[in-house]
Amino acid sequence: MTTKTIKPYDLAIIGGGINGMAIARDAAGRGIKTFLCEKDDFGSATSAWSSKMIHGGLRYLEFYEFSLVRKALKERDILMKLAPHMVHEQRFILPHLEHLRPKWLIKMGLFLYDNLYKSQFMKKSSAVELKNLSIKPSFKDGFEYSDAVVDDHRLVIELAHEAKRKGAELHNYTACEKVELKEGLWHITLRTADGKTKLICAKDIVNATGPWAEKFMKEHMHLNTNKSLRLVKGSHIVIPKLYGENKAYTFQDENGRVVFTFPYLNDYTLIGTTEEEHKGDPNDATISTEETIYLKSIISEYFGKNLTNDDIVWHYSGVRPLIEETGKDNRQTTRDYSIEHLQYGNNTLINIWGGKLTTHRVLAEDVLKSLDYHKTWTATEPFANAVNFKHFAHGLINEYPFLDETTAKRLVKSYGKRSLDILKDCKKDKDLGKHYGNGLYEIEVKYLINHEWVKKPESVLLFRTKCGIGMTSSQIEEFQTAFEALINPQKEKPSAENSA
Ligand SMILES: Cc1cc2nc3c(=O)[nH]c(=O)nc-3n(C[C@H](O)[C@H](O)[C@H](O)COP(=O)(O)OP(=O)(O)OC[C@H]3O[C@@H](n4cnc5c(N)ncnc54)[C@H](O)[C@@H]3O)c2cc1C
User: pLDDT digit string (tens) for 191-206?
Assistant: First the structure.
């Protein structure tokens, strides 16, 4: 065990999900000496398991959450400006079910959705006939509206690049074990993946541990709070492409629960989500039989297709950290965040309770305001990698004709301008290196290891790229062996003595 101390930071952030990373970006951009640690990989908890929408939240209108919807709609536009390569408009179809609510009420809701914040980018909602679509012919008409979609995990990584560029120090696979206030500083004990402990100090600290926030306060800081979290699991299933139209669908069941279907990764349909109370560690959340049956039943009801478990190529579950509100069920509980500011002499502790993927930027701004930094900057400075998706993808396909179109588009959506860094030495297809399957080449994996904090094969397959979803089990096995050789090249080379 080694213990090392270094010069104090101004701000330490515990948790490298969307919220922690957004705070790191904002703080570092103001010249604040910022440290962030994440116990696993960046963005590998709740922020990787969402429905991937950057949205105002049409259904929150039902609970009169107008200010949350307005705030989130505004953020949707800001994110489309900051990261146009990765945040894209998606049209949603909302079939009309007379017994749930009359048309005039839906029209009014959509009017509010279009106008609570007037988007610069989104098409307005409209009434539509459903006759040429894949939904069952018994659903005759409905409405269409816009929201945006994003690869949630990649958005965290994009923020990590930005935070690092602005000077933040970021450490994944580094758990915060203990926090104590001594001699005017937070003393923070960390444990790295190799079992070593390290001590750092900071003037202020942010607890951005998402669904772990309450536990972290109590068990790692030994402090009390009057807030408490309700952990609500949501699961998604991925199946081979269910329909041809490039539309998402919004369905509401008899209990008012909403399920979406999205076109996903060219060849698939993503279906979710559910709401089940979760006990235990958020990392252990996994889809239950009831959730699978429920999601399959929605597809049968609306598309007339009876899915079997063999149709499910992937599934994932995440845990929402909702702020406990007595008397409200999971659906009614607010999705807004709360920032708790606790002052101990000159030192501040900020706890983040709740929140959405969509509102991470403004949440970070509110945290910095709470720390007395009032001049804002993050809404107007696009990410350094930002490019116009269509134009840039077109250019990339022309410049690298040996790259298939699907892979070229995936690279632009994932890396923006940095896709040129990945491809810079490629003159012909051989220069892409080994192809592991489903458009994943050696050159990209090397880039991920060298520039995107990747230390494990699953970070490549299921997080930074989603190529693993379309690979066969033997391709995955081969990739895992190849990955070890790439990340640890010395191990593979025979020593001079052995090869002599
Ligand atoms: C099923 C589902 C669907 C959703 N869909 C949407 C959607 O479509 N749109 C939307 O806007 N929002 C959506 N959300 C909400 C959104 O995903 C979350 O609000 C958001 O990801 C929370 O981010 P976070 O950074 O607070 O938490 P997390 O992403 O969980 O990050 C917290 C991090 O802290 C780390 N950590 C914990 N303890 C320690 C420690 N001791 N030391 C170091 N690190 C630690 C964890 O490993 C974790 O990575 C959805 C949520 C769920 C569950």
Answer: 999 999 999 999 999 9
Atom of ligand 1 nearest to the CA of 354: 19
For residue 454, pLDDT beyond 90: yes
Q: What is the largest CA-CA distance in the chain?
A: 83
Dist. CA 496 → ligand 1 center (Å): 48
Probe target for ligand 1 pocket from 46, 173, 198, 273, with the most ligand atoms within 8 Å of CB = 46
* E strand or H helix that includes residue 416: none
How far is 58 from 325, CA to CA, in rounded Å?
Answer: 21
Confidence of residue 2 (pLDDT cuts 50, 70, 90): very low
pLDDT at 495 over 80: no
| Fold entry, domain 389-490 | Helicase, Ruva Protein; domain 3 (1.10.8)
Residue 4, pLDDT > 60, answer no
Residue 329 confidence (pLDDT) above 90:
no
Topology (CATH) of 88-149+231-323: D-Amino Acid Oxidase; Chain A, domain 2 (3.30.9)
Fold of 9-46+154-228+334-370: FAD/NAD(P)-binding domain (3.50.50)
What is the H or E stretch that residue 470 is in? none
Domain boundaries, the chain: 9-46+154-228+334-370, 88-149+231-323, 389-490
Burial class (CB in 10 A: 0-12, 13-18, 19+), 377: middle
Of all protein residues, whose CA lies closest to atom 37 belonging to ligand 1? 209
Q: Which residues sit with their C-beta closer than 6 Å to ligand 1?
A: 14-20, 37-40, 44-47, 49-53, 55, 175-176, 208-212, 216, 220, 234, 273, 318-320, 352, 355-358
CA of 17 to the centre of ligand 1 (A): 6
Do domains 9-46+154-228+334-370 and 389-490 share one topology? The answer is no
Q: Is the pLDDT of residue 391 over 90?
A: yes
Atom of ligand 1 nearest to the CA of 232: 53
Of the candidates 47, 49, 40, 50, the residue with the CA atom closest to the CA atom of residue 18? 47
> Burial level of 472, CB count in 10 A (0-12/13-18/19+)?
exposed
